[in-house]
């Protein structure tokens, strides 16, 4: 088979591939820049292989210059597209443009040189392109067998073109584009491998799509699991809230109705007891609703941290005054050992919620006539504040799961106080939003230690 017949076959194969890719891109709902670049490369190669056939209609030097330039551009775009299939970086169009102008400049310079020089330089340029191709593929550390096949094809094409270039310049000084010989036959025959590389290109695209589908499936599966866990937690949470809130509101309504319609039937002491129960019930309802509101805002990402510098001791005093009736009811002594010069940098309102939840939790699980101690220590960057109670403690299996996102636990207090389990979740969330940490240690029937850390102000 003569050279012109081979060239015609190359041209037809390139045009067929270009038209196929063009149809694919037009009909595809999602456009792919890599496929577009590859198609343009095939378009250039389609013109390249036609130029020797129609060369008699245009000046020879124009045909040679345009042909060599389009050959370099076509091979370059193929290699570039293959290398960028799995690249994470965006396509570098500037690099493509610079390469195109350099190759054009080279071919313009050698335009007046003998045929063997033009063949030799063009072969070297193509050899460099394929060398860059297998280097790019090699650097990607991709273990795909298709990658190795593409690597092997580019390496072989690079070697063949370098041999052809050396032969044209140093050995066969009469070599031209259409001359015959073993090197010429092997060089042109090797370009059939570019047709095989097109198949590899599509296989690599499919491999990329398969990997993306697999990755998306894993992400979707993980998201579904998280969603199921989140929904289960929320269902349990709202079930507890509905039960506790309904019970507390029902008790308040009954006490209010009793005092309103039958207050004359009770002694002053009994009325005061009812009023005390009503106050305690109202406080519990308020605390539950406040936690629920804060938790809902946190879940909806509607809470923003507004950090200020404030005294931790003053915040503790404010909270202790708010819950004074709670620890007085159970005759619990609270000792605050936090230094007055401890200033933290955090959102004041968020830390109030945190401290209030921890203290009310400690009161809830402490027996009457016990003690709660608030102490701490500091390091170079943070204050570590510990809330130590002498309560019932926490079971080891519960303690292990207590701070996990999906765990929700509520236990009646020592005086049968109710809780929703939402307070601790909110506490952990708010502490972490302020750059702090929370940890819990506990021994059954000995007490618990809740420790929070906050940045220094």
From TrEMBL:
GO terms for molecular function: phosphoprotein phosphatase activity; phosphorelay sensor kinase activity. Its EC number is 2.7.13.3. It catalyses: ATP + protein L-histidine = ADP + protein N-phospho-L-histidine. InterPro entries: BphY/WalK/GraS-like, HATPase_C_sf, HATPase_dom, His_kinase_dom, HisK_dim/P_sf, Sig_transdc_His_kin-like_C. Keywords: Kinase, Membrane, Phosphoprotein, Transferase, Transmembrane, Transmembrane helix, Two-component regulatory system. The chain crosses the membrane at residues 6-24, 36-54, 60-84, 96-113, 119-138, 150-171, 186-205. Pfam families: HATPase_c (PF02518). It is an enzyme of class 2 (transferase). One of its GO terms (cellular component) is plasma membrane. It comes from the Bacteria. GO terms for biological process: cellular response to phosphate starvation. The keyword Secreted does not apply. Residues 240-457 form the Histidine kinase domain. PANTHER family: PHOSPHATE REGULON SENSOR PROTEIN PHOR. This is histidine kinase. The lineage of its organism: Bacteria, Pseudomonadati, Bacteroidota, Bacteroidia, Marinilabiliales.
